[in-house]
Fold this sequence. Notes:
- By secondary structure, the chain is an all-alpha fold.
- Helices cover 82% and strands 0% of the residues.
- It is built from five helices and no strands.
- It has helices at residues 5-22, 26-50, 57-61, 72-107, 110-146.
- Helix 1 (5-22) runs antiparallel to helix 5 (110-146), helix 2 runs antiparallel to helix 4 and helix 4 (72-107) runs antiparallel to helix 5 (110-146).
- The chain is elongated and about 60 Å long.
Amino acid sequence: MRIPRSVEQEHDELHHELDEVSRLGGQTGDAAKRLARILQPHFIRENDYAVPPLSLLQQLTRGTVTAEMRWVLPLVERLKSEMPLMLREHDAIRGALHDLATAAESEGHTNARHFAERLQRHAKMEEEVLYPAAILVGELVKSRLAT
């Protein structure tokens, strides 16, 4: 079980940028710290069960399904059951990002505002692409192993 390197790198970059924005001080830094408190448990959940199924995508596109892929089934079931929580966290993240963008704009921190916009796009991509793809991975593995 692993996290696709591209997703891991993007999350690492987002954490690094958030750390930099948190050090700005003022309202922008305070807003970034509030955002970090919301993001931390969310990123842990993603790394625990939402993103690892994506590591099977390349094998699945080649038609490879093996019994060793069963590890993905409980992760996907957890993602499906906790999807409402993940989406509520995204709503809280969006609220914190709005506060960050507003503070950054008023204090002239263009990079912090751009970071907020980038993280907003990332969350939307997770909702539209990553989470559904992870669920499809599990459904495909389950259906192929059942035959």
